[in-house]
Structure prediction request, 175 residues.
Amino acid sequence: MKIACLGWGSLIWKPEPLEVVGPWHEDGPHVPVEFCRVADGSELATAICLTTSPLPVYWAVLASADLAEACQTLKAREQIPAHRGDAIGSLIVREDDQGVLGRWAAARELDAVVWTALPPRYANIENRMPSQVDVIEYLGSLTGDALEHAKRYIQRVPPQIRTPYRSAIEQTFGW
Prediction:
């Protein structure tokens, strides 16, 4: 089974323990992502956000040929608790698939696709979408190592992940 993983944040530059075969490709499907998840490490991480426009994300083929194993490894990489069943998405590609993701994967001769499906999080509330003002205020409140970590994360996300919040962050902070 040829399985790909979608990425739009730190998976691209730090996939371990997820083993990828070859490079990350820039011609991924269009997915609505935004800098909308305050992560455990204080960075403002990218996450799927249904209120923004889709943009092309990255993808890489995984070394694992077992879908359950690929999902478990991605879950471990993202440090998602074992009991949480909603944080990893997957799709098995079917010949008659009419969906955008299925057609994209079939065109690349993939058998399955996995991705991180963590929702937005703000003020320690899962599924709470921060506003652009919230994001600027949050980043502006950080100091020291937390600020440097958050800044590095945003700067390392590939420029292709061009979102409205990223534009506001760049305008406000110059990162």
Observations:
- The helical segments are 67-77, 100-107, 132-141, 144-156, 164-173.
